[in-house]
Structure formats: C-alpha cells, structure tokens
Amino acid sequence: MSALAELAAAYAGAAENQQQAQGAPAWLESRRQAALATFRTRGMPNQLRREERWRFLNLQSLLARMYEPNAPVTVELTGPDAISAQVYNIAETPPTVEPWLAAIATDYDDNPFTALNTAACQQITVVHIPATVQADEPVYVTISTEADGDRMACPRLLVVAEAGTRATVIERYAGRAAVTNTVTEVHIGQDAQLHHIRIQDDHADAVHLSTTAVRHHGNNSTLNGLSINLGARLARNDINVQLDGEQLESTINGMYLLVNDQVIDNHTRIEHLQPNSISHELFKGVLGNRSRAVFNGRIYVDQKAQKTDAFQSNPNLLLSDDAVANSNPELEIYADDVRCSHGATYGDLEQDALFYLRTRGFSRDQAEEILVNAFLGELLETIDIDQLRAEMQQRIADRMQIALSGALTSR
Amino acid sequence: MLKIDNLHASIEGSEILHGLSLEIKPGEVHAIMGPNGSGKSTLAQVLAGNDSYDVTAGSVDFCGQDLLELEAEERAREGVFLAFQYPVSIPGVNNMYFIKSALNEIRKHRGEPELDAADFLKLAKEKMEVVKISRELLNRSVNDGFSGGEKKRNEIFHMAVLEPRLAILDETDSGLDIDALKIVADGVNSLRDAGRSFLVITHYQRLLDYIEPDFVHVLVDGRIVKSGDKSLALELEKEGYGWTEDLREVS
C-alpha cells in the first residue's frame, strides 16, 4: 500500500471509530457511511497523478502525516431572537434538518476532505431562519479551536434561509488546531435574501480546508456572499453554488491578503441550471512576500439556462517579485443565449500612482497601503456592519505592515 | 530658495537635461518655455523626486538643503509641490480624505498639530472658494472620472491646501479652455506671496497673460538658452520656436 493509501485508510478508520462511538439518527448515519465509503475508494488527493483540481496546491506538508480528525471545536453564537442558532451533538441532530444536512455538499469525489468531514464531524451548528423573518441584526457564528499540533478539527455548519427571509450570517474562523477541515451547507428559499460573510482568520501555522456548498434554489432570491481570507499558512476554499431557480442573483465575492509564505487556493463552481439568473464573482487578491494564490473559477451553464448572465473576475495585486498568482477560468456553456465573461489581471502597484502620492507627502509604505486599501475597498464597502468593516480594515492594515516590511528585504 | 546648477539628468540611459542652471528667489515667478521634447517635464519630475530619472551631474539646493538627497515625500514635506501635467486618478480613495491626510503628514513634519475633521473642513472651504472647485469633486475619488479641467483645478486645490514654498506647475494650462485657464490662474495668483515661489512650465505664452512671470527662460535640448523678462514670452509667441532649431544643431 502506498503511503497515501495508508494515510487515507488511517483517516477512514478514525472516522469510522468516531461514527461508532457517537451514533446518529438513521438517515444521517447512512449518509455518513456513504461519505466514508466514497472516501475509502477515492482516497486522498493524489498529486502524483496530477489531479486537475489539486495540481496547483502543494499538499505535501498536509499529507505527510495523519491528524486525528477529532480536535474539539468551540462555537459561539449570537444573533436576533427570531433566528434559531444552535449547536447539536451529532447524535442529537434534529430531524428537521434532514432535507439539507449532508445533502447539499455531496461532491465527495471532487473533494475528499468534504467526505471526511461528513464522516467524522462530531457536532453540527444549525442556523435556521424561519420563513418570512426579516432581521437587521446579524447572526455571528464564531468557530475556534485550541492550539493542537496533532489534530484536525471538523466544524460543520448548516444555514437554512427559508422563503421570504432577509438575514446576515457571519461565519468566522479563529482556529489554532493544526488543521481545520470545515463544511458549510446553505439553503436559500424563495424570495429570500441572504448575506453571508465568511472570515477565515486561522493561526499563521494552520491549514484551513473548507467547502461551502450553496443550494440557491428559491425563485427571486438573492445571495450576497463574501469570503475574506486573512490567516492560515495554507488555505483551500471550495465554493460551490447551484442556481436552480429563476430570477436568482448570486454574488460570490472573495478577497485575500497574503503575506510571508501563505498559500491560498480558491476553487469556485457556479452552476446555472435554470433560465434568467445572474451570478457575479469578484475575487481580489493582494500578495506580499513569497505568497502564492490560485483561483479556479468554473461556470457551468445548462442548456436550459437561457438568459444567464455570469461574470467572473480575479484581479491580483502583487507587492513583491516573489509572489505568484495563478488564475484559471473554466467555462462550460450549453445554452446559446447567455452572457458570460471572465477576466484575471496581475499587476504591481502602479508606479505613477505611487509617485503621485509621494509628491503629496506620503511615504512609500503609506502610499502602498493607501493603494491596497483602495483596491480592497470595493469589497470591504459591501460589508454594511460598521464595526465589522472597521475591524477588517484594521486587520488588513496590520497585515500590510508585514507585507511591507517583508517586501523591503525581498526588493 | 532654489538653485539649480549644471543639472544633468537621464532616463533609461538617455540624457535629457544637459547642464541646466537656474536660480529662483523667494516670491519670484519663473516661467520655463520650450518646444516639445526640450526637457520641461523632465525638469519638473526630477525636482519632485521621481526616481525613474537619474541625476548624473550637477546640484540642486533648496533653502539650504541638498534637494537631490531627499526622497519625493521628504521634498513634499519640505514644501516642494508639483502640479502634474497628467494627474493620476486613484479610484477608491476619497479626495477630501486624501488631501486631509496629506496635509497632516506635512504638518507632522513641520511639528504642527494635526487638523481634525472640523478644522480641516473650514480650511478646505476657504480654499475651495479660491480655486472654484465644487464640494462634489472633493467627495469623489481622487481625479477619478474628472474632466481634464477638473483634474487641473484639483491640482491647484491640493496646492492651495498644502501651501508649498515652491510650486512647480507642469503644463497646467494644457487642455484647458480659456475659462478654466482663468480660474486656474486666479488660484495661482491668490497664492502668490513674498515667501512662495513658482516655476511655471508651459508650451504656450497664453497662460502667462494671466500669471505674470518675473522671469522667462527658454529651454532647448535640456539647457536654458535664453532668459529675460515677460516680454521674452511675447517674443516667443510671435516668432515660435523655429529659431531654436539652430541652437539644437549646435548642441
């Protein structure tokens, strides 16, 4: 058996033990076993076989050893009374979530870590927005782990926005465990408006693996998603949105500010299955020092999905000569009356703009910071919670200091 | 205030300024005129500290300091201001916030307390009057989507707020119609005082009808070939730059 196969077998064994120790309602138990079975046959991402979906990401350090997938997860929940937000041990999973839990994020072949999470997770967090509830106050789901060099945390979140709702859910990671392997499933019902902000701010030595799977099905509904990536030494985010309704508007935005040797890999997959919907993706990256970013954006337009309007863009700002960004659009379009556009750019800060700022009295570092803030500002401004936006701006300013101090030595 | 002596400067290995000398005393307005490609904008960029240019010989003294030793931002904080021929637009940076931060950087350098929002607004209102710039332009991103005239007026507004000791205007008149030109000139004139000097770079004499220079210099091939009072500008207007062709061949 190869080392990789042994590793997969070890993970599968650990997940199986956890399943047996905990138990779950029958419907969930069978889904967990199915996930485990797929995981066993599929195995870990094999980079020797150059799997397309994993080829830009060096997983060597992650795959060198096993991390017991049972690191304790602490979930803090705050939000308005009208929205129910609760953590359940897997054995106490309520029957009401059966239509969605382990039923939306099921692309186990694409991402075996999703299967591993389904098989091994020990508790689930459910945010349920009952039909017609309109809430101004956001729900905060803060997921943290203790420092633990040996274990993998498997947080699991389900967000259900029922018909006619309006809500904001902020999913925030502050992980210190060696590996966080998290899965979030989102259901959006008819006429619902969901604002989903995901903040990944794990420890600088951590690995962050995530799948966000959205079933955007209810007619006339809106998803406004923003994925902010600040932490972790290696982060892989899979964001899969299935638009299976009409007059849907899905905004799937992301930003990352990388320093030192950070690596991020964002894989998005937007599937248009019905006519007359819009998807809009903007992923903006700032790369300092020796960091590296991958963006893979797949757009699938079914032959039924006429009048689809899909836009994708991935501009990157490189602050250092040693930083690298790869961008890879994948368009698969079977309808003939669609608008679909994509673009990626890589650039340094504009020398003209830097000089202009300096002639007004700003130092080079200040000028770079001003230009980076302006670049990311477009996305930060979409956060309509003042306190959170200010906090993110501060985090970005802190990280810019690292990028700039490192950039000086690498220049 | 400014003493340029035998300045040689090049960009990407080709020399543009071939030994330029010029002295400006406090309160004086000097105009530099010259044909395209004579080095007018290079002079402006070199004085403002654009490090794409290499100074290969010569010296520049600014109020007793070696200007060439200073970084661009240090020059700005010491009171050198460049109004750009092509002001850069910076989407996402609010013009008002931008110029307030810039002023506070300069005030910090001078050892003066920073202005808070209310004090700055008061100052900005005064200066807006002077350069006839609308509040709306200040609420937008720096130069983003501004017309040519609005950009130039915004440069003069920046100058009015920052109150430099030496203001360099690089072809501020280019692309302006006569009304815009008058507004810009009025702004400059209102800032003239005994302690502030101007270096006005222009291709055409027209601007000098409104900003009256104390001295006019003709720049040809990276060197000042003729200096005089404002009548020299009129002479140039009449004769054009054709006569400078001979000088170019000699050099």
Task: Tell me what the structure shows.
The complex is a heterodimer of chains A (411) and B (251). Chain A is 24% helix and 39% strand. In chain A, strands 2, 3, 5, 6, 8, 10, 12, 14, 16 and 18 form a 10-stranded mixed sheet that branches. In chain A, strands 1-4-7-9-11-13-15-17-19 form a 9-stranded mixed sheet. Chain A contains 7 helices and 19 strands. Chain A is globular, with a radius of gyration of 21 Å. Chain A is of the alpha/beta class and 411 residues long. Chain B is α/β, with parallel strands linked by helices and 251 residues long. Helix content of chain B is 39%, strand content 29%. Chain B is built from 9 helices and 12 strands. Chain B has helices spanning 40-48, 72-78, 95-110, 117-131, 135-139, 148-162, 178-191, 231-239, 244-250; strands spanning 2-11, 14-24, 29-33, 53-62, 65-66, 80-83, 90-94, 141-142, 166-170, 197-202, 215-220, 223-228. A 6-stranded mixed sheet of chain B has the order 6-9-10-3-11-12, sandwiched between helices. In chain B, strands 2-1-4-5 form a 4-stranded antiparallel sheet. Chain B is globular.
Task: List the main descriptive attributes of the protein structure presented here.
heterodimer; A: 411 residues; alpha/beta; ten-stranded mixed β-sheet; nine-stranded mixed β-sheet; 7 helices; 19 strands; globular; disordered C terminus; B: 251 residues; six-stranded mixed β-sheet; four-stranded antiparallel β-sheet; 29% strand
